[in-house]
Write a structure and sequence with these properties.
The complex is a heterotrimer. By secondary structure, chain A is of the alpha/beta class. Chain A contains five helices and seven strands. Chain A has one domain (about 15-125): Udp-n-acetylmuramoylalanyl-d-glutamate--2,6- Diaminopimelate Ligase, Chain: A, domain 1 (3-Layer(aba) Sandwich), CATH 3.40.1390. A five-stranded mixed sheet of chain A has the order 2-7-6-5-4. In chain A, strands 1-3 form a two-stranded antiparallel sheet. In chain A, α3 runs parallel beside α4 (about 95-100). The longest helix of chain A has 10 residues, at about 115-125. Chain C is an alpha/beta fold. In chain C, about 40% of the residues lie in helices and about 20% in strands. In chain C, about 60% of the residues are buried. Classes of the chains: A alpha/beta, B alpha+beta, C alpha/beta.
Chain lengths: ~130, ~150, ~120
């Protein structure tokens, strides 16, 4: 499954960022979705509460979270979020990755705090969800 | 023979009373600050104490926190009446939680409580009986040099 | 390492609301922490940090106090519960507010603190 088959933003506009760039900025490990590095998101959202994530209606959002469990993957999938960054050096389990792979998701792991992760991406130009 | 000064504190913890959760830990912090205990030791004690206190509030019907502070260490023991922990090893896993949805929505129940306690204490004992209750006993040495690094993950 | 800025300065620069704990506006900020999980803040936040969260219940004050945080910043337009605000006044730890979401305001706080120190990230 390659990046071209994932729905993508129709036009290049400011605030859009490709996963490969995000992974670089965050010095992140790509745990699955290595073939989808060209996928682009147009906004980012940070939350640890799944009920909050469920309120997201936008497509092509990057989820930044410190809650590393299977529920996070399920909730992201339900909200059509294709890429999740687990911050705070949280361990992502094999069960989580299996679920992510099944749903063509991209999972990144980064050692920075959620605060720093948001800071780095925001200052690099990634937009917030409106 | 030198006299050993010992401070003994006791707090009742009400299950489900989230408004009061943290009160006992706050008192312990005040005492340790007054005693001018090493700041790092205070920080660790506060984290461990708070997590243990919240566990009683989140899962048990009621409990009591016994605190003994002497020149060597602070010992905190929580004894509760509650459902108990069926599998302690499982409960020690990061991310494992039996907290209810409403408790999780408050930001509790992420499954970090017991691991946090272990990380921050120098000695930890947990025993439990299902349908009876749980006892958590922890020791933190006041001298930071005596920190038990083996307990850290 | 980020330089210190006072809570009052942050409030001004980002046009934040001050719900309570005004007496603590002179506190120095050493950094920021973003989390809605209380154990995570207990385990990882540092003294002097501004805690960004959408939790509004009284337990956030217990944590702010136990961890010696500089202030709590409620995101997404959230307001503190009455007893939370009261506790904030007692502890003199400010509760600030913004209608912006966590990602955006964290980005702005990070940017401000970073520039203040004149050091990269």
């Amino acid at each position: 499954m390659d990046a071209a088959r994932l729905p993508g933003p129709k036009a290049i506009k400011t605030g859009v960022m490709q996963i490969k760039e995000i992974a670089g900025i965050l010095d992140a490990r790509v745990l699955c979705g290595e073939d989808k590095m060209d996928y682009a998101v147009d906004a980012a959202f940070a939350s640890d509460l799944m009920s909050d994530v469920l309120t997201l209606k936008d497509d092509h959002v990057l989820l930044i979270t410190g809650l590393a469990n299977t529920q996070t993957i399920r909730t992201a999938e339900m909200s059509d979020i294709h890429c999740v960054v687990f911050a705070r050096n949280k361990k992502v389990s094999e069960e989580m990755l299996e679920l992510a792979r099944e749903n063509d998701m991209i999972v990144l792991e980064c050692r920075y705090s959620v605060f720093k992760t948001c800071g780095l991406l925001f200052t690099a130009g990634l937009s917030p969800v409106f | 023979m030198a006299e050993v000064e010992r401070i003994l504190l006791e707090y009742n913890i009400e299950g489900g009373n989230f408004t009061r959760a943290g009160y006992a830990s706050s008192q312990i912090k005040k005492v340790l600050k007054q005693m001018q205990v090493d700041l790092g030791v205070i920080k660790r004690t506060v984290v461990a104490s708070y997590e243990a206190e919240v566990n009683v509030v989140a899962h048990a019907y009621s409990g009591t926190m016994y605190v003994a502070i002497d020149p060597e260490a602070v010992c905190i023991e929580l004894v509760d009446e509650g459902p108990g922990i069926p599998d302690i090893e499982q409960a020690m896993q990061e991310g494992f939680s039996t907290a209810s949805v409403s408790v999780r929505e408050m930001g509790f129940g992420a499954g970090m409580g017991l691991p946090n306690i272990k990380k921050n204490t120098d000695h930890l004992e947990i025993d439990s009986q299902v349908e009876k209750g749980t006892r958590v006993a922890m020791t933190i040495f006041l001298d930071p040099a005596r920190r038990n690094k083996e307990q850290q993950q | 390492m980020m330089d210190t800025m006072k809570v009052s300065e942050l409030t001004e620069k980002l046009d934040l609301k001050v719900y309570s704990g005004r007496k603590g506006l002179s506190r120095d900020i050493t950094g920021g922490y973003v989390s809605d999980l209380l154990s995570d803040v207990m385990g990882n936040a540092d003294a002097g940090e501004v805690w960004l969260t959408l939790q509004t219940h009284k337990n956030i004050m217990a944590i702010a106090s136990l961890k010696d945080l500089a202030a709590i910043l409620l995101v997404g337009g959230n307001k503190p519960d009455e007893d939370t605000a009261r506790q904030s006044d007692l502890e003199e730890i400010p509760i600030l507010g913004t209608s912006l979401p966590a990602f955006e305001v964290a980005g702005k706080v990070y940017d401000l603190l970073k520039n203040d120190a004149g050091i990269q990230g």
